Amino acid sequence: MISIVVADDQMMVRQSFRAVLDAQSDMRVAGEAENGLAAVELCARQVPDVVLMDVRMPELDGLAAARRILAAGGGARVLMLTTFDIDEYVYGALRAGASGFLLKDAPLDDLVTAVRVVAAGNALFAPTVTRRLIGQFATRAPLGDAGKRLAELTARETEVLRLIAGGLSNTEIAEALVIAEQTAKTHVSRVLTKLGVRDRAQAVVTAYESGLVVPGAG
Questions:
Q1: In the record, which positions carry 4-aspartylphosphate (predicted)?
Q2: pLDDT one-digit tens code per residue, 157-208
């Protein structure tokens, strides 16, 4: 059973999400929060698997709330919700460790799928949105130790990271490299471990920050 916290300042949105998610046999909404501060406090009590976090909220914005929740180390995965397809706050959330984001005007079926994807430990990437967002804002981010971490990868793992940054799934990576899907999955796992990141979202951020992938490049 996937435990979920819904954080949004609009009651209608929260109730709509709760109705859809609670109707799933494998999901349970553990609570709702009307602002970022309430979300942090609720997550500390409930320790959910997934947090649906609106980017812009009173008291404490979604980005700051996501940072606090992820820093607490309870294991929750944060899925940011935004009305805008390009939002600098969302890139900041990815850097902070959020597992992706979803547009609030997406079909409710997409919401259900997104929760399952994130709960399974994967990152959620909307090809026409997330790649464009990262491409626009990655150049503003400090390089930090991204380059040093990249040096730990083998040539094959570096190529796998480049494909991850392109939004490819394990199956697509296997096809691109002409290897077995299980082998691709192993490579992806090793890449995440060596980079010290929790999922594909942070791996993509590292790929851009290190300069391995250049924003806007084909």
A1: 54
A2: 999 999 988 778 888 999 999 999 999 999 999 999 999 887 787 788 788 7
CA 61 to CA 196: how far, in whole Å? 27
Q: Return phi, psi of residue 77, to 5°.
A: -110, 135
Structural domain spans, the chain = 2-136, 143-210
Kindly report the pTM of this predicted structure: 0.71
Q: Is the distance from CB of 51 to CB of 30 less than 8 angstroms? A: no
- Contact between residue 144 and residue 95 where contact means Cβ atoms under 8 Å apart: no
- Second-level CATH architecture of 143-210: Orthogonal Bundle (1.10)
User: Into which CATH architecture does domain 2-136 fall?
Assistant: 3-Layer(aba) Sandwich (3.40)
Q: What's the CA gap between 159 and 205, in Å, rounded? A: 15
CA distance 87 to 134: 10
Kindly report, residue by residue over 46-90, the tens digit of the pLDDT. Answer: 999 999 999 888 888 888 899 899 888 888 999 988 776 555 666
